[in-house]
Amino acid sequence: PKNVNFPPQVCEIIESPLFLKLNPMTKHTDLPVSVFESVIDIINGEATMLFAELPYTLATEEAERIGVDHVARMTATGGGENSTVAEHLIAQHSAIKMLHSRVRLILEYVRAAEAGEVPFNHEILREACALCHCLPVLSTDKFKTDFYDQCNDVGLMAYLGTITKTCNTMNQFVNKFNVLYDRQGIGRRMRGLFF
């Protein structure tokens, strides 16, 4: 761009400034970014700073592509909203944090009341006791049975997912093997015709 004039202070600090031009109105598939390098050229006997456009290429790694793909899918499906799994996990995390903070508050009050730091409020203590009775007791046989059943179900689901992925990988391998074997078989038959 010809109309860009860097202040002399910038040129004193940075020997060869770069100019980055963003075009928000572009409808092309390429990135709407242009990079210009400063070049000092003599025009009419005077040293003048000009900007020459630099070609560039983007180099990305697999992790970056996966992240960009995830963001693009989220943007395309919900206008910037999180995926349903992420929303579910965020809601669970918030609920657990809230439960943790409230249980800690109740525990601090009970400890302070026990130590005599705060006066006893029997209504609050009764509500805390009622809350404790509502929670499942972790040492009962029914809890242990239900807990191990649930752990087994989760383990089974993870195992089935692994088996499904393994079967898919094996299926892809067999398909590739069959394609390769068929090519070699055709080649042998064709060579047999010529000999």
From TrEMBL:
Top-level division of the source organism's lineage: Eukaryota
Pfam family, one: MitMem_reg
Keyword field contains Nucleus: yes
GO cellular component: COP9 signalosome; cytoplasm
Subcellular location, record wording: Cytoplasm; Nucleus
Keyword annotations from UniProtKB, A to Z: Cytoplasm, Nucleus, Signalosome
Tagged with keyword Cytoplasm: yes
Biological processes, Gene Ontology terms: protein deneddylation
Residue intervals of the EIF3F/CSN6-like C-terminal domain: 62-175
Cited function: Component of the COP9 signalosome complex (CSN), a complex involved in various cellular and developmental processes.
Entry's family note: Belongs to the peptidase M67A family. CSN6 subfamily.
Name assigned to this protein: COP9 signalosome complex subunit 6
